[in-house]
Design a protein that fits this description.
Chain lengths: ~100, ~170
């Protein structure tokens, strides 16, 4: 069986890549996708620990994280569509005013 | 031994698609690579005896959330594709080595710590005795974590109303 540390290393790599994506990319959709990757890396860590510690709390927590991520993606994409419906090219650096 | 081969193969695919999501020029490629990433994670969940969550991951994450993403990417696609590496701005060159350092720090913290010897009640035998992953997770979800479960339903209603309100045209 695969040791738990290997799963945690993969989780760490995916989390770091997600953080890098949020910092580097200017397209808001790709930034959002990187955030989803970070959430999934955390889910992997939860389930790895749930297997290691023989407890199902990790799996229940992942269930809730997936649900919250779904709700967050719904509202976040609605916001992005509402903001960027008018513009030609989407770039988060253009969003520097709180109104309009 | 077989589990190790499966793990290494899918870990490689997961990391490569993760790098592809971050550095890909076309946002549709990013979305599709992220779907492959989620499938690899579902395989990891099966390896870790979380079959119900593997199915939920494929159904909800790869099957619903990423479909939403692809819709919105198609709706808001830019006129020309831009090279993301050229668009990074001032922080791009600092961010990449910092990300490597960040990953290294987490890996060090993971490998330097010790696992807790205290084990919970749900070993593999106990889960199989309860009837499988779905029954075991359901048992925990509906007894110990019933309140968060009900609050999650409220959260979903709020998200639904929010999405509908945000999607309306100005009346």
């Amino acid at each position: 069986m695969v040791p738990t540390e290997y799963f945690l290393i993969v989780s760490a790599i995916l989390f770091g890549l997600g953080a890098l994506g949020v910092l580097i990319r200017r397209n808001p959709l790709v930034m959002f996708m990187s955030i989803e990757m970070m959430l999934n890396a955390a889910n992997l860590a939860f389930i790895a620990f749930a297997y290691q510690l023989q407890s199902l709390v990790g799996q229940v927590f992942v269930f809730f994280v997936i649900t919250v991520a779904a709700a967050e993606v719904t509202v976040g994409l609605a916001i992005i569509v509402a903001i960027f419906r008018m513009r030609e090219n989407v770039d988060v650096d253009d969003l520097n005013k709180l109104s309009g | 031994m077989g589990a190790m081969i499966v793990f290494l193969a899918f870990a490689f695919i997961a990391v490569v698609t993760g790098i592809g999501v971050v550095f890909s020029r076309n946002p549709v490629y990013c979305a599709l690579l992220l779907v492959i990433n989620f499938f690899c994670l579902a395989v990891f969940y099966v390896l870790l005896n979380a079959q119900f969550l593997a199915a939920v991951q494929v159904t909800v994450y790869a099957g619903a959330i990423m479909v939403l993403f692809v819709f919105v990417v198609m709706l808001l696609s830019p006129a020309r594709e831009q090279n993301p590496l050229r668009q990074m701005g001032r922080f791009g060159l600092i961010a990449m080595p910092l990300a490597v350092v960040f990953i290294g720090q987490i890996i060090f913290a993971v490998l330097a710590g010790t696992m807790s010897p205290v084990k919970g009640p749900y070993s593999l035998d106990q889960i199989n005795r309860l009837g499988g992953s779905v029954q075991a997770v359901g048992r925990v979800l509906f007894t110990d974590y019933l309140l968060p479960f009900e609050v999650t339903s409220l959260l979903l209603i709020v998200a639904l109303i929010g999405a509908v309100v945000l999607g309306k045209r100005r009346v």
